[in-house]
Amino acid sequence: MEILLSNLLLEVKMTSLDRPNLFPHKVVREGQIAFIKDLDKSLDYNKILLAHAPTGLGKTASALSVALEKAIKHNKKVFFVTNRHTQHQIAVSTLKLINEKSDEPFSCVDLIGKRWMCNQEISGVFGNDFNEFCKAIVEKGECEFYNNVRSKKNLQVEAKVLINELGRQGALHNEELKYLTEQKRVCSYEIVLELAKKAKVIIGDYYYIFNPFVQATLFNKISTELEDIILIVDEGHNLPNRVTDMVSSNLTSIMIKNAILEAKKYKYGGVILWLQEMMKILNSLANFSQEKESLVQKKQFMDAVQKVVDYDGLIAELDLAADEIRKKQRRSYLGGISTFLASWKGDDDGFTRILTERQSSQGPFMMLSYTCLDPSIVTRDIFNQIHSGVIMSGTLQPTFMYKDVLGIERSEEKEYPSPFPVENKLSLIIPQTSTKYNVRSEAMYKKIADKCSLLSSLIPGNVAFFFPSYNLRDKICSFLESDKKKFWEKNNMSKEEKDQFIESFKEEKIKGGILLAVTGANFAEGVDFPGDLLKGVVVVGLPLARPDLKTKEIIKYYDQKFSKGWDYGYTFPAMNKCLQSSGRCIRSEKDTGVVIYLDERFAWQRYYSCFQKEGLIVSNNYENLLKEFFTL
Fold first, then answer.
1. DSSP string of 140-156?
2. Which residue pairs from 56-59 have beta carbons closer than 8 angstroms and sit at least 24 positions apart in sequence?
3. What is the full DSSP assignment across 431-483?
4. How far is CA 276 from CA 201, 261, 263, 269, 624, in A?
5. Read out DSSP for 261-317?
6. CB of 364 within 8 A of CB of 293?
7. Intervals of the chain under pLDDT 50
8. pLDDT score, position 11
């Protein structure tokens, strides 16, 4: 009865709009109507909706259908940004369904990084090296794919025909488009830019909106202004870190060593002495305490370089050499150093500068970092300029933190309950162990391992354990005993390795396997285990950030700005990782499973307040609760 009523309400709401109902599915999930109504209202009033909307609510279909209706009505573009390639496919599939229901056909383009759309052989070429390589071969007329699209920047006749054909096909995934352009021997990226000029919906990575240089370049090429954009930010909990990473920069002693070798190889002897002096400067700045890290002032480093060579002159010399080297080997370490030196001249407000000694497989190395602490330096102006938008995630908690750290001034904040039956999930906090630093010991590791061993036997089928770090996982799991097959996540796994790893784990669903993973790593987000592929998730310990200089600087910064340094810089980010990991279990209304938080601190008010309390139990009687849950 309630679902029928929700469907009726949705029908009434949609028929009140000027455009046809573009919602792509026949069934509306319970709770989805509230999200649709809130978003409809926010976009009407040029607001930014911050929506904590759990898995299963149907965020993508709701957001795209409502935003697209507004875009058609007000002659705007919808820009859907996400940091996950899998979400591109979901968005494109949704738009194909919407296109089938629309009385007014619309086009959509799916943008990925320019490098990934390139049809040239470019293995091993990334970042600015790729951009410079691309620019160089286009300017010299040596890119066949570009030449088949443009002649003196004017479109070729064959390219115009292809663009018209593709525009009539509606929504195309980037892989579909790349395949079609490869067959025609044309540049995928240039074709997409032309399609984007008329497209009603653009799907892309965060940096197409939030990287200032990339955004300005793209919007200039497609003749669009931020004021014309209705923005949908998917997986919005990732946005603050992605933005700060975009505008941060590092210089390492490894980069300098490689740059010296590069300069010798291509006979740029004039810069070798300067690079050697730069290495000495890094070492001289290393006035470390026991922690092997220290703050560095902007003037301190620049003055030291200036004593050796004119600072701006060095940047220019490195740029010239890098341009020539890229013509021969496509990438240049000299160019990377030039980029860092230029960024180091940036503002101090909202940034910190840290020198650290780190370890690699080749031994210790030095890293000088210019690190952004405040994403609102970039995001505030963008959210002020766009027409309207929504930031949505299943773990956008607390919404007020994201409003603050992103600098959103015209926001609406909403939290929605899970649409799945409460009885399908058992949520437990077991307050009997801890990974707190001052109680870590072999005895505690064994105690935690014993709990994990027992839990794996009580939970039938596959179970995933998420630990704060690889090091802590290995120390604990050396004591873990189980008849189930163990799957050990590795750091820095390739996409192929991850796919094969997950498939092997899923195949163990009958006998049961144990995934030994890390919160915030490969399998804590963006991986689905629907149905009976995963029956339990155990979050072992709190993944609190290391109390290093960067963490202390973030806490200090947000304390000064909002008087919430510990919350915004320490507690909430850790809990967000826990909630992301726990979300791997229940992915549909038919799934059943358990989510367990194994650490006494989860029951402390500071951390307990971050949970949604519906169905959450704090108990030492977990054995009986688990047996009862899985026998019902």
1. TT--HHHHTTEETTEEP
2. 56/29, 56/418, 56/419, 56/420, 56/586, 56/587, 56/588, 56/589, 57/29, 57/31, 57/32, 57/416, 57/418, 57/419, 58/25, 58/28, 58/29, 58/32, 58/419, 59/35, 59/234, 59/392
3. TT----GGG-SHHHHHHHHHHHHHHHHHS-S-EEEEES-HHHHHHHHTT---S
4. 50, 11, 11, 11, 66
5. HHHHHTT-HHHHHHHHHHHHHHHHH----TTSEEE--HHHHHHHHHTTS-HHHHHHH
6. no
7. 1-20
8. 41
What's the confidence (pLDDT) of residue 529?
80
**Per the omega criterion (within 30 degrees of 0), is the bond before 398 cis?**
yes
CB atoms closer than 10 angstroms to residue 221: 13
Compute the distance between CA of residue 72 and CA of residue 77 in angstroms, rounded to an integer: 8
**Angstrom distance (rounded) from CA 95 to CA 79:** 13
For residues 1 and 535, what is the distance between their CA atoms, to the nearest angstrom? 30
Q: Quote the CA–CA distance of 486 and 489 in Å, as a whole number.
A: 10
- Looking at residue 107, its pLDDT comes to 86
Query: CA 351 to CA 176: how far, in whole Å?
Result: 41
Sequence letter at residue 296: V
Order of strands across the sheet that contains 513-518? 485-488, 513-518, 463-467, 536-540, 593-598, 425-430, 616-618
pLDDT for the residue numbered 124: 62
| Dihedral angle computed from the Cα positions of residues 207, 210, 211 and 213, in that order, rounded to the nearest 10 degrees | 120
For the whole model, what pTM was predicted?
0.90
Number of other residues whose CB lies within 10 A of the CB of residue 367: 17
Tell me if residue 319 falls in helix, strand or coil: helix
Distance, first Cα to last Cα, the chain? 26
Sequence-ordered list of residues with C-beta below 8 angstroms from that of 297, at least 6 positions apart, any chain = 353
Length of the chain: 632
- DSSP, collapsed to helix, strand or coil, labels residue 387 as coil
Residues 6+ apart with CB under 8 A from 193: 218, 221, 222
Using CA atoms, how far apart are residues 398 and 602, in angstroms rounded to an integer? 17
pLDDT at 50: 98
Instruction: Look up residue 474 and give its two tokens.
Output: 């290995």
